């Protein structure tokens, strides 16, 4: 494979998926094929006092003098060096690379190439594109990680036949990626696409965003675990919850039914707004397959505006797993 | 004004806003100025049995033989003749007209120029564009009326400085129009943009769409009146409700506070998804001005994802009133 690339000098795009735990660097060809990949732990470190002078990406407030340093420079340096090593290992010259796309878990200013804020990796106002450009002299684009995962699925995964795809990633939180006409939907304003932060239960469970009753507060894996804990007093993984319910635990059956019902309310809301061709579910809970899909499909058929006379989307599981982010990031280029 | 047009033969677009009660026909210049306007009652008539042969726009089911006739042909004929009369009255020749845009209250297939379904005017599968084309030999575009109103405000009204505008029309129902990059957002699928049919209160009030707890079931003028009736036993108009609350009626004060709170939940949900530059409120209730806007602006500041660090939209009242639909429809061309 590598030899073929070298012989043809076919263009390669670099797709980087910065996650809360691991960072994945992929080389992607024009056919959306992942040619090679490297994984490294995401090093966020602890906030470190460095005095008022501060450094890039270390300000606690955008206007205040910097007082806490997060090692954004160190991490970006690691990513740059690891990418260069991967290119060398694969025998790919820099002039064969057409650009770098990066997915970041947080709020991103795509036009400026700046990570506005990421709670997960503890970055604030980090000019990621220009900083990584010191290692990789290529066009660099950045986007939110949930958007990149949705884009990856839309170009190369379960959504590759579709132009309009909404993907919900059900993990620690509920991430939403919206692909319209084959492109990430992004408003002029920073932020947006926060499908998980749509209130579906007035005055409901507290959400990390400060409101109550958001979809995320019911449809995340963490929310499922919380509901199971309340019902049984036990700390169970999502897999265990589904397995024990499958063995006839009625309390957990009820927990799952309620979980699916609320996820379904959120999905129908989203369909009524975007009317995509396809809704994809990714993340931890997508392993549950038909047990989730079947009741959700029923809710969409029965609940969407216009009913079955309208054009209803399919609901499917995402298919690329943890490769979606890299492939989608590469597609930013 | 008319003379100027004739002298210059400046291009004119025809914008038609078909409403549940009135249909408005406007002539709009390149500066989005409404040059002339005609109003006619919308004639929907009663469904009439015409046997199995049926006619255009009269099928009860898309596949079933037609058995009920709605006078779509008659009404479209009226619109065509009225438009021709307006052009003649204003001394505008057909070759000065660049096209016709039409806003329709219902689900519209814009590409095919077909009204899929309108409960308000009792149309089903009406090929509006081709039927009106028999009277007006011009390019004809159709769209949903709430989308047209939003587009009108975005090009010529309260949103004319903005590219990304969401408009909620608070009337009998809650209509939503989404303008992204200056264009109506429309998914590939038919339908969508149904911002009023987003559940915000699980298992809440029944909604006309068949679900429970939709924004429309709380934020329409009808919902406000229903809440006032429950609280006071009286049938009051929205104006009366606000006026009596202003004079110190505590029950109605509570009704209004609850109304605003739920409208605010819906608006924050919408901002978290679209992050528009501007949210506009139109329809009956927009007459209430600051009394509505001030608490809603507070909810947006406090409730949106990312809080005041994010880029928050303005919330304002629409400014074009019942002209917005015509101007927006003309902008489809």
Detail the topology: elements first, then pairings:
2 copies of one chain form a homodimer.
Chain A (H helix, E strand, L loop, with lengths): L1 H7 L3 E7 L3 E7 L5 E8 L6 E2 L18 E2 L2 H18 L7 E8 L2 E3 L4 E5 L4 E4 L1 H6 L6 E5 H12 L8 E6 L3 E7 L2 E2 L31 H4 L1 H12 L5 H9 L3 H25 L3 E5 L7 H14 L10 E4 L6 H7 L3
Parallel strand pairs in A: 1-6, 6-10, 11-14, 14-15
Antiparallel strand pairs in A: 1-2, 2-3, 4-5, 7-8, 8-9, 11-12, 12-13
Integer average pLDDT of chain A: 88
Query: How helix-rich are the residues of chain A, as a percent range?
Result: 25-40%
General form of chain A:
globular
Question: How many helical elements of chain A?
Answer: 10
Please trace the helix and strand order of chain A, writing H or E for each element.
HEEEEEHEEEEHEHEEEHHHHEHEH
Q: Identify the quaternary structure here.
A: homodimer
Biggest sheet strand order of chain A reads: 3-2-1-6-10
Biggest sheet of chain A, in brief? 5 strands, mixed
Strand content of chain A: 15-25%
Within the CATH hierarchy, at the fold level, what is the topology of the largest domain in chain A?
Nucleotidyltransferase, domain 5
Rg from Cα of chain A: 21 Å
Catalogue the unreliable spans of chain A.
47-68
Number of DSSP-assigned strands of chain A? 15
> CATH homologous superfamily of the largest domain in chain A - what is it?
ATPase, nucleotide binding domain
What's the level 1 CATH class of the largest domain in chain A?
Alpha Beta
Number of domains of chain A: 2
Most extensive interface between two protein chains, with residue counts: A-B, 49 and 48 residues
